[in-house]
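Render this sequence as a predicted structure.
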Amino acid sequence: MPQVLRKSKVWSPPPVGSKARENFPSWGFLNPEEKKYPFIVKKGGKWYVSCAGLLAAYRRALMNRDSTIAAKAVSKAKQYGCPWAKKDK
C-alpha cells in the first residue's frame, strides 16, 4: 500500500493532456481509462496518495453528478484513513 499524505491541504494536479499527467501511473486515477480524477502526488521520487486529492476528486464528481466516482473517492479515502472521510458521506 502506498504512503499517504493526510495533512496536506493543497491540491494542484497537472493539467489534462500535459506530459506530467501522462506520466502518472494508472492506479493514481479514479477513472484510469480516461485519466480523470487523479489523487496521487510525487514527492522525492515516490508516489503518495493525497487525501486532498481524494477530496478534490470527490467534490468534482459530485459537481459532475458522477455518483460512481464519488463513491470510489469515499471508499479509497476511508481505506487510506483520510480525516475527511471519517464523517458519514
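Summary. Residues 74 and 89 are 7 Å apart (CA to CA). Strands lie at 3-5, 29-31, 36-38, 40-43, 46-50.
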